[in-house]
């Protein structure tokens, strides 16, 4: 197979000293800035973009990619320690990571997240090396109807993420969809629910929703909880390493997460957040330990981390081979290439083979670097939890403000964060969960856009979703999943009732 | 490559309002160049190139400040409110200065009176591309198809320049096409390649690879004359339809800036736009530089609003 | 739930009646049931707003779905779901978390102050005041401690975000 030859050649490119250096700079910056809530990979990438003008295109790309997946490693740290997703895609990691930290197992959670990220990254890399052309042509078969079907599947999966009442989970997804309609309607240009506020024309920012619902909402809850000393649990510094049983239990979830993640990553736009949500939902259905999900299950940390990291790697496939950026950070990657006169497209694989394979090989190097960088840091991060909460939470509030402000350099976003923070607190009081809402919110605008586009292109014929083969199959899978969840929920209820009756 | 740019530079220096003005540094604190798009697009890259050369040529430190949102009006509103001391400039374009005044009922700024329009950077030309499988090669074929089965076309968004162009073409060719808006041209092109769209409008230069590979059939460019890069593609005018829509980019500041400083900025920009490496880079992005004096550029901005108004109204971009 | 022995509850029928009464009270009045129904009601109101707004914007035809179509579809779905939530939450008898309105207000005020002050006076005073206000509900830190904390964090933010990351913040404004 000439894949091995190409990869070997790429490895030589990536091992050149200057590429090693820029790879290290990238992953180092990414992982540390990813820890800061809300900052994400955008800020550091735009920071190093001017620097990349002076570099070889491969070095520039390797460095930017390093920031991008480095931020995913870092993003999970804030999720686990503070229940604040450092990057939006790590919001799923909060669900089990934070409970683990509260049980004093923060070290294991962080270790698991690093290992799972590494595993996912490797799976993503292999998929990219072997399947890039195939996945690119798959993405080319995705028209509006197919995207709609994929998103629908993602949403049904997302409503299953919830631990509480399933009705509330679905309601939160739908509320997220609804919230996503605020702003200028991209199909007609009319303003919706903006109340005449110009800042709302582009809708509510994702970072605002994530920081408000998760960050601020959680903070209000924990002030009282921690004043009584509940936060300062004893932590055994020695126990960072998962036990043999734990290793065994995360192995398959990492593989599944990686596979699901690399699929969603390759579809521009759906990206890491959907990948981690779907992977988590699937795992929750498959896992033998499913009863513990949401209460600190180690699989619940491994799966989303593996998924979002493999999605991060495969997100380069549509960016490089189709020129379609799935996210703002990926748009920056295209910008960095354009400045060197390289146009992303199907010919990139052939004309710039060095660049492509050098990048793929740098994933291997960068992920090893991240592992080496992150594992010794675990002790330090865990020690952060020992800082009395009275010092911690005002700091977190300020970090949230800065993160939100840095997105659009706009004070209005802080006011919105306040509103979402209050809403997040009330939701906790009423036992609603923020994760499904966030996923609905991410996918809502895309879903609406593709729905309307599909209807426009089919000239008003709704059967298009069933008659196009890929979308038809996806819709059938979605209906199957929905039916299965309903039946199992009903069966569980009947079982519960039966148990109650026999207890009486 | 562009001697007329240098000539214009010399000319503008001659007619400078202030005798002391010459290209150079104008502010001790770093200048912020506000960009109306998120980082990574052509507009952002142009601003970064400008910032880079302002520093290397004149020692004028400059940083790029991306303030995307609401069709560029967020950035324009922000700049209009900043002090007119030359430390905040905007890399302006059609969206906030030409289209928004007609698109939105009320704007927090006046596209002409709230700004000092300093220098024109250049314009790129969009064109009309169709699927090769349709078997048409000219606008007459396009008209026949639109009147027969109907044609779907992708634009980079409601109220975007490609949407306005689509409307202008519909009006000139007296046809009705089905407009399918996307968020930017990349997803539209993806759907085009997936075979769900019949046509799309986009910048010529961005699609050079697809043109060379025969994956698209370019029918016409919306420029006054054929482009140097694709001399075989005819203009709309040649085929008998008066459609000219160019996507300009320029540098502006808040209203009330000191004329001498404006001249300094203008001349610095003109000098940078004449550097061969910059010309080559702009060429690659399909941006052709036309030197304009500050006065000319201001009246150009004001003029474009009036010229485009009927097209924007016809496109019904506010959904009304 | 055990009822205290009471002279009147000796009879079996009477006891049965009181038990039933207590159960219905449990279902209707404990704080959580009340709050839960409120959450569902909030969602219901929200969905009605979106339905009405969506209809006003126009739902269009299948071929060209209008601006309001998606808000109306999701609004109707959410309205149905929130009715289901109200009904099920009224039966939910688990203990509620007691709301902590002081922290609620303090964190809100902290964000509001950051927004106002960073816009008018710059980043440093905004961070300082936000920290002090946010730490108000915590009694374990004295006021002097809160002020020192504010000073340390604002210096740290300056170093990290302006010094290191070079984000476009202004440390002080209009002073």
From TrEMBL, chain A:
Keyword DNA repair: no
InterPro entries membership: DUF112_TM
UniProt cross-references to Pfam families, sorted A to Z: TctA (PF01970)
Residues in DUF112 domain copies: 20-438
Assigned keywords, A-Z: Membrane, Transmembrane, Transmembrane helix
Membrane-spanning ranges: 19-39, 108-135, 147-164, 170-191, 203-223, 322-343, 355-379, 391-408, 466-487
Keyword Ribonucleoprotein: no
Top-rank lineage group of the source organism: Bacteria
Cited PANTHER family: TRICARBOXYLIC TRANSPORT PROTEIN
Identification of the protein by name: Tripartite tricarboxylate transporter permease
Species the sequence originates in: Pseudooceanicola spongiae
Source lineage: Bacteria, Pseudomonadati, Pseudomonadota, Alphaproteobacteria, Rhodobacterales
Automatic annotation (TrEMBL), chain B:
Keywords recorded for this protein, A-Z: Signal
Chain ranges passing through the membrane: none
Cited SUPFAM superfamilies: Periplasmic binding protein-like II
Pfam family, one: TctC
InterPro entries documented for this protein: BUG (IPR005064), Bug_dom1 (IPR042100)
Signal sequence extent: 1-21
Listed CDD domains: PBP2_Bug_TTT
Homology family: Belongs to the UPF0065 (bug) family.
Name the record gives this protein: Tripartite tricarboxylate transporter substrate binding protein
Organism: Pseudooceanicola spongiae
Automatic annotation (TrEMBL), chain C:
Listed transmembrane segments: 33-53, 65-87, 107-135, 147-165
Keywords for the protein's UniProt record, in alphabetical order: Membrane, Transmembrane, Transmembrane helix
Domain DUF1468 residue range list: 39-169
Alphabetical list of InterPro entries matching this protein: DUF1468 (IPR009936)
Pfam families, sorted: TctB (PF07331)
Name the UniProt record assigns to this protein: DUF1468 domain-containing protein
């Amino acid at each position: 197979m000439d894949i091995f030859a190409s990869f070997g050649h790429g490895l030589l490119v990536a091992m050149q000293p200057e590429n090693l250096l820029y790879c290290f700079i990238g992953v180092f910056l990414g992982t540390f800035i990813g820890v800061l809530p809300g900052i994400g990979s955008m800020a550091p990438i735009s920071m190093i973009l001017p620097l990349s003008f002076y570099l070889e295109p491969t070095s520039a790309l390797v460095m930017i990619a390093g920031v991008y997946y480095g931020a995913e490693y870092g993003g999970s740290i804030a999720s686990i320690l503070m229940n604040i997703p450092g990057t939006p895609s790590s919001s799923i990691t909060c669900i089990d990571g934070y409970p683990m930290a509260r049980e004093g197992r923060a070290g294991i959670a962080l270790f698991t997240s690093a290992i799972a990220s590494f595993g996912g990254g490797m799976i993503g890399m292999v998929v990219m090396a072997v399947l890039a052309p195939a996945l690119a042509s798959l993405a080319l078969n995705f028209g509006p109807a197919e995207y709609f079907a994929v998103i629908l599947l993602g949403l049904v999966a997302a409503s299953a993420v919830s631990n509480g009442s399933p009705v509330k989970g679905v309601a939160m997804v739908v509320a997220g969809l609804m919230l996503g309609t605020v702003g200028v309607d991209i199909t007609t240009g009319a303003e919706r629910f903006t109340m005449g506020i110009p800042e709302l024309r582009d809708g509510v920012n994702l970072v605002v929703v994530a920081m408000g619902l998760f960050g601020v909402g959680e903070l209000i809850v924990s002030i009282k909880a921690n004043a009584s000393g509940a936060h300062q649990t004893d932590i055994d510094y020695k126990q960072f390493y998962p036990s043999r049983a734990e290793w065994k239990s995360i192995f398959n979830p990492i593989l599944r997460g990686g596979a699901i993640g690399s699929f969603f990553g390759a579809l521009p736009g759906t990206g890491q957040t959907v990948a981690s949500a779907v992977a988590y939902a699937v795992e929750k259905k498959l896992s033998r330990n499913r009863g513990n999900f949401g209460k600190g299950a180690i699989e619940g940390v491994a799966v989303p981390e593996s998924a979002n990291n493999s999605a991060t790697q495969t997100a380069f496939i549509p960016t490089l081979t189709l020129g379609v950026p799935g996210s703002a950070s990926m748009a920056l990657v295209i910008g960095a290439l354009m400045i060197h006169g390289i146009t992303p497209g199907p010919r990139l694989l052939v004309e710039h083979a060095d660049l492509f394979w050098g990048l793929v090989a740098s994933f291997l190097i960068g992920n090893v670097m991240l592992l080496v960088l992150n594992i010794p840091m675990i002790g330090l991060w865990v020690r952060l939890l020992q800082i009395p909460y009275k010092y911690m939470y005002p700091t977190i509030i300020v970090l949230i403000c800065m993160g939100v402000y840095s997105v659009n350099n706009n004070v209005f976003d802080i006011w919105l964060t306040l509103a979402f923070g209050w809403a997040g607190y009330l939701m906790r009081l009423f036992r609603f969960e923020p994760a499904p809402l966030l996923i609905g919110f991410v996918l809502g605008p895309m879903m609406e856009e593709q729905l309307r586009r599909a209807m426009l292109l089919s000239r008003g014929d709704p059967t298009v979703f069933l008659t196009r083969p890929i979308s038809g199959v996806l819709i059938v899978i979605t209906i199957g999943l929905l039916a299965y969840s309903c039946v199992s929920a009903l069966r569980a209820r009947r079982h519960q009732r039966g148990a109650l009756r026999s207890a009486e | 490559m562009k001697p007329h740019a240098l000539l214009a530079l010399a000319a503008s220096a001659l007619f400078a309002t202030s005798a002391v003005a010459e290209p150079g540094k104008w502010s001790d604190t770093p200048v912020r160049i506000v960009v109306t798009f998120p980082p990574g697009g052509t507009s952002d890259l142009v601003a970064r190139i400008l910032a880079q050369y302002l520093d290397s040529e004149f020692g004028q430190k400059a940083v790029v400040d991306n303030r995307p949102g609401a069709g560029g009006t967020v950035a324009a509103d922000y700049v209009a409110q900043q002090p007119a001391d030359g430390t905040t400039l905007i890399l302006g374009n059609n969206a906030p200065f030409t289209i928004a005044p007609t698109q939105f009922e009320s704007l927090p700024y006046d596209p002409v009176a709230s700004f000092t329009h300093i220098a024109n950077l250049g314009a790129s030309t969009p064109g009309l591309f169709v699927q090769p499988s349709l078997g048409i090669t000219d606008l007459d074929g396009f008209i026949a198809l639109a009147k027969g089965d109907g044609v779907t076309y992708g634009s980079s968004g409601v109220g975007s320049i490609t949407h306005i162009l689509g409307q202008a073409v519909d009006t000139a060719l007296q046809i009705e096409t089905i407009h399918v808006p996307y968020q930017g041209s990349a997803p539209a092109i993806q759907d085009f390649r997936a075979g769900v769209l019949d046509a799309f409008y986009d910048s010529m230069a961005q699609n050079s690879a697809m043109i060379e590979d025969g994956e698209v059939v370019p029918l016409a460019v919306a420029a006054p004359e054929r482009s140097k890069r694709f001399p075989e593609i005819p203009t709309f005018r040649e085929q008998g339809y008066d459609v000219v829509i160019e996507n300009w980019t320029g540098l502006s500041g808040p209203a009330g800036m000191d004329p001498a400083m404006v001249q300094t900025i203008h001349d610095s920009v003109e000098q940078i736009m004449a550097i061969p490496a910059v010309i080559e880079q702009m060429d690659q992005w399909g941006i052709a530089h036309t030197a304009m004096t500050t006065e000319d550029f201001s009246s150009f901005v004001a003029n474009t609003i009036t010229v485009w108004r009927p097209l924007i109204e016809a496109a019904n971009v506010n959904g009304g | 739930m055990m009822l205290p022995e009471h002279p009147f509850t000796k009879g079996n029928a009477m006891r049965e009646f009181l038990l039933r009464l207590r159960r219905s009270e449990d279902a209707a009045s404990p704080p959580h049931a009340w709050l839960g129904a409120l959450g569902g009601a909030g969602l219901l109101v929200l969905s009605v707003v979106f339905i009405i707004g969506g209809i006003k914007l126009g739902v269009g035809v299948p071929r060209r779905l209008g601006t309001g179509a998606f808000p109306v579809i999701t609004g109707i779905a959410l309205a149905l779901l929130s009715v289901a939530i109200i009904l099920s939450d009224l039966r939910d008898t688990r203990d509620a978390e007691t709301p902590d309105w002081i922290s609620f207000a303090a964190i809100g005020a902290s964000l509001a102050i950051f927004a106002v002050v960073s816009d008018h006076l710059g980043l440093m005073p905004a961070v300082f005041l936000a920290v002090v206000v946010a730490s108000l509900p915590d009694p374990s830190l004295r006021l002097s401690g809160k002020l020192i904390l504010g000073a340390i964090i604002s210096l740290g933010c300056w170093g990290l975000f302006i010094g290191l990351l070079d984000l476009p913040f202004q440390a002080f404004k209009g002073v």
